[in-house]
Amino acid sequence: MKSLKRLTGILSLMVLVNLTFQSQAQADGGNLLFYGLAAVALLIFFFIVVSVADNFMVIESNESGINGEKVNMGLYPRISELFSKKTPAYLEGEHTYKLNKGYDIPLEGKASDVVDGSISATRFAVMPPDFIGLKPIPKVIVEVGDSVKAGEVIFFDKKKDRIKFVAPVSGEVIEINRGLQRSIASIVILADKDQVSRTYTVPAEGASREELVEFLLESGAWAGIRQRPYNIVADPEVTPRDIFISTFDSAPLAANSQLQIAGREDVFQAGIDVLRRLTDGLVYLGLDGREEGKTAFSTVRGAEKRYFIGPHPSGNVGVQMHHIHPAGVGENTVWTLDVNAVLVIGEIFKNGRYNSERVVALTGAPLAAPRHVRTYTGANLGELLAGNTFDNVRVISGNVLTGDAVGADGYLGYFESQVTVLKEGNEAEIFGWLLPLKPRGSVSPTIPTFGDFEATTNTHGEKRAFVVNNVYESVMPMDVYTQQLMKSILVQDFEAMEGLGIYELVEEDVALAEFACVSKQPLQNILRSGLNTMLEQG
Amino acid sequence: MKALHDFVKKYEPSKENKMAHTVFDGFYTFLFQPDTVTSDGTHIKDGMDLKRLMVNVVLALQVLYIFGTWNIGHQHFLALGEHTGLLEGFHLKIVYGLIQILPIFVVTHVVGLGIEFFYAGRKGHAIEEGFLVSGALIPLIMPPDIPLLWLAIAIAFAVILGKEAFGGTGMNIWNVALLARVFIFFAYPTTISGDEVWVSGIEKVGTEYFAASYNWAHGLFDWIFSGVGLSQFGAGGQAVVDGWTGATPLGIAAKEGWEGVTAVYSTDAMFWGGIPGSIGEMSVPLIVLGMIFLIVTKIADYRVIFGGLIGFVVCALMMNAIAPPMDALTEDMDGVFKFMAIPWYYQMIMGSFLFAITFMATDPVSSADTPTGKWIYGFLIAFIGLIIRVMNPAYPEGWMLSILLMNTFAPLIDHYVYQANMNRRAKRTAAMAEQRNELITKRGDLPVFDENSDYVPVGNTSGQ
């Protein structure tokens, strides 16, 4: 309605200006412009008459109460009715955000919607580098050969020693792998056949916030809580303004979060109930507005529900936060969790055990049967993918935009619930830049994509300087000038970085822009270096 | 395909031989999209790269090249009163046009690409594709008889000082093609202004105009044409037709107004493009075709183009308002008033506004960065450009100067857009904090900050 008002305002203003200018000319019958304007004015006049009459009709129908469901009783369709799919009925009265910008890369190899119970991994790893903001060499308190229960502490950071990191499964520690400069790369556990969890004494119903925090830190569930800005492990000293939870993943080929919560709705609810007590503010749930009906997440109580309709990155918690209430430093610090982290907390409080069970999507075109499997945090990818033979592929823990290429010997990242297998694109293509014969994804209309396609890891071009064709803005549903932000990071202009919104972004939010970039610039790396600088500056 | 690739790869010079390797790499990446794979960051990348972005502009220019080639010949023969029909002597017109345009095209690319290769080799980076577009644009904005030496100097100036000095493609602040033209405009004004330069092959002897004599290339084609029984060039040197003028519509309009223009050129001719002028910027329908192509494929930003069209119309209407009405003009009035009185739709089909706003102003390197900034940038180019065209007594066209001017000011426009964005973001967060407090006190039953509330983010989130 507002845009319509503005449009009519501008139109009438233009007519007025034109008439003023034309008043100097003589309308002697040969003046095309004059007649054109007269015709337009006449049309506008009729339009106004009709609109006013129509408005009376609408008011009348509202007053007589026949329009209880707020359907459009007017003559004209609403603009939203013309250009968008009808929003489903269950969203009526819910807080819904419609995001038009973004892009769903139509990849082949989507996981089927059944959880395959036949596949199980035996080796699981915890990788300290998954947790941002820790020292590279944590204090490891287990040794190779020790046997641990699920939930028992295996390492903690030397500085932030209140946060304990625990074993995802019970079993025997078989490897402690070191990476660069003697940093700890991973701690591998060979899982027992029958999983045993350590036991917890859950704080009482009326326990204070301090008690709760202390319990969560010690229980190992804290590791799943991340703090914005910077996406670091949450600082126990800080009380977050709000807590944000995205209940769906919109990334290419992402796991179906409905399967993750299926059968564990009460556990999820228990987790939400705990989180509510950790903040003075609100717990926000970001829900997928593209679902056809209500989902298990819609029935969660005690959280503010916000629906997001739109292509990727609508499922990114950062994008959701931008529209609900942006994060920032100081009192605007917020926490974010994913569905799995909430389930871990809920499991401890509801059932008194540590259970890192999660549903993982095995995806990608080279797989014989892409599907969901049930496993635990940090599962070995090779074991999950057993039965597939690969040639010249890349195995990624996570999605194609933000995941890590850990290879078939690698382990699933702590925050990942997806494995993607991609064909390597190490093959030159004759005139590939001019005639894109092999299928490839693109936000550009000059490269049409027909249906799903099999992507490769080819860069499709070489790195160049930034150009100002606004492709970032076309895929970022945020009020952020990404390119200028990147440039200000490169020149270390702190004020500009702050003002342009670096605190609202983490790598996953700019990943789609990095995909679409014609200059093939490494936006995620640039952003992380900027975040690290800001973190050091305090 | 693999065999061809391996064959080409066999000739790859060693990395130590920088210059040879750069040149090889330039041709190799032209022939093949290389086999590099993503290393960190996203694992898949968009199929669009800078080469493809640039080549789409070149594609959009192809129809203008064909038309321009024909038009050079057409104007030449029109001046001589031979083959005056549009398709009469078509082969002669095309051949004549090619003989004029090919050397320009070759010199442009040899000089421009040569410098590009040289710098890429010295700095040891890949050859960038910026000159793909610049090189395609430069011949189109030159008069057909431009002396090749001066063209070469101008291009060397533009590429070295306008681009390489700033660090190469993507770093330059001015449009390279326009920089080349502006160099010729100031250094050799007689070759690019006045009434004589826009029609090819006409010489002034005393006060009379004659056709220049044809050279060996024309002779060669004459030999071929005589063999197949087509009409031929002949020796040349004939006098032009009575009352011929090579002046462009704008040249006439600046002195005599619209009446003077229509006495020489019909509105149709100006619209379809059969008039003298720079090689590629005459035909309105073909430029609009290119414009639509670039907008639909999102290669060029529609904001710059529409901003420009609005700015042009507004400026023209303002001039109309200041000037006396068209039919109240008298003979003894100053030329500038007659020029100002011309309505915007006639202004638009004369000269090269549409070409400039479509292909020059939308350059993805030197234009403004922000979407909002692009509207302002386009608007100001057209607004200032029309003022320069009409008010400037020396030269009746202004796009080159106004685009370079706005190239200079584009960062300033962006600066204010960024500042506005920072303020807006701060305000928005503050407003949301207030709403959160309300939400906490009355959990649940408050309308929430969304697209229906009073605050609507502007700039790059509009229409989210």
Automatic annotation (TrEMBL), chain A:
<protein>
    <recommendedName>
        <fullName>Na(+)-translocating NADH-quinone reductase subunit A</fullName>
        <ecNumber>7.2.1.1</ecNumber>
    </recommendedName>
</protein>
<dbReference type="Pfam" id="PF11973">
    <property type="entry name" value="NQRA_SLBB"/>
</dbReference>
<feature type="transmembrane region" description="Helical">
    <location>
        <begin position="32"/>
        <end position="53"/>
    </location>
</feature>
<dbReference type="GO" id="GO:0006814">
    <property type="term" value="P:sodium ion transport"/>
</dbReference>
<keyword id="KW-0915">Sodium</keyword>
<feature type="domain" description="NqrA second alpha/beta">
    <location>
        <begin position="208"/>
        <end position="353"/>
    </location>
</feature>
<comment type="similarity">
    <text>Belongs to the NqrA family.</text>
</comment>
<dbReference type="GO" id="GO:0016655">
    <property type="term" value="F:oxidoreductase activity, acting on NAD(P)H, quinone or similar compound as acceptor"/>
</dbReference>
<keyword id="KW-0812">Transmembrane</keyword>
<feature type="signal peptide">
    <location>
        <begin position="1"/>
        <end position="27"/>
    </location>
</feature>
<dbReference type="InterPro" id="IPR008703">
    <property type="entry name" value="NqrA"/>
</dbReference>
<dbReference type="InterPro" id="IPR022615">
    <property type="entry name" value="NqrA_C_domain"/>
</dbReference>
<keyword id="KW-0739">Sodium transport</keyword>
<dbReference type="Pfam" id="PF05896">
    <property type="entry name" value="NQRA_N"/>
</dbReference>
<keyword id="KW-0732">Signal</keyword>
<keyword id="KW-0520">NAD</keyword>
<comment type="subunit">
    <text>Composed of six subunits; NqrA, NqrB, NqrC, NqrD, NqrE and NqrF.</text>
</comment>
<dbReference type="Pfam" id="PF24836">
    <property type="entry name" value="NQRA_2nd"/>
</dbReference>
<dbReference type="InterPro" id="IPR056147">
    <property type="entry name" value="NQRA_N"/>
</dbReference>
<keyword id="KW-0830">Ubiquinone</keyword>
<keyword id="KW-1133">Transmembrane helix</keyword>
<dbReference type="InterPro" id="IPR056148">
    <property type="entry name" value="NQRA_2nd"/>
</dbReference>
TrEMBL record, chain B:
<feature type="transmembrane region" description="Helical">
    <location>
        <begin position="374"/>
        <end position="392"/>
    </location>
</feature>
<feature type="transmembrane region" description="Helical">
    <location>
        <begin position="275"/>
        <end position="297"/>
    </location>
</feature>
<feature type="transmembrane region" description="Helical">
    <location>
        <begin position="173"/>
        <end position="191"/>
    </location>
</feature>
<comment type="function">
    <text>NQR complex catalyzes the reduction of ubiquinone-1 to ubiquinol by two successive reactions, coupled with the transport of Na(+) ions from the cytoplasm to the periplasm. NqrA to NqrE are probably involved in the second step, the conversion of ubisemiquinone to ubiquinol.</text>
</comment>
<keyword id="KW-0406">Ion transport</keyword>
<feature type="transmembrane region" description="Helical">
    <location>
        <begin position="344"/>
        <end position="362"/>
    </location>
</feature>
<feature type="modified residue" description="FMN phosphoryl threonine">
    <location>
        <position position="248"/>
    </location>
</feature>
<keyword id="KW-0812">Transmembrane</keyword>
<comment type="similarity">
    <text>Belongs to the NqrB/RnfD family.</text>
</comment>
<dbReference type="Pfam" id="PF03116">
    <property type="entry name" value="NQR2_RnfD_RnfE"/>
</dbReference>
<feature type="transmembrane region" description="Helical">
    <location>
        <begin position="398"/>
        <end position="418"/>
    </location>
</feature>
<keyword id="KW-0597">Phosphoprotein</keyword>
<feature type="transmembrane region" description="Helical">
    <location>
        <begin position="94"/>
        <end position="119"/>
    </location>
</feature>
<keyword id="KW-1278">Translocase</keyword>
<dbReference type="GO" id="GO:0022904">
    <property type="term" value="P:respiratory electron transport chain"/>
</dbReference>
<dbReference type="InterPro" id="IPR004338">
    <property type="entry name" value="NqrB/RnfD"/>
</dbReference>
<keyword id="KW-1133">Transmembrane helix</keyword>
<keyword id="KW-0472">Membrane</keyword>
<keyword id="KW-0285">Flavoprotein</keyword>
<dbReference type="GO" id="GO:0055085">
    <property type="term" value="P:transmembrane transport"/>
</dbReference>
<dbReference type="GO" id="GO:0016655">
    <property type="term" value="F:oxidoreductase activity, acting on NAD(P)H, quinone or similar compound as acceptor"/>
</dbReference>
<keyword id="KW-0915">Sodium</keyword>
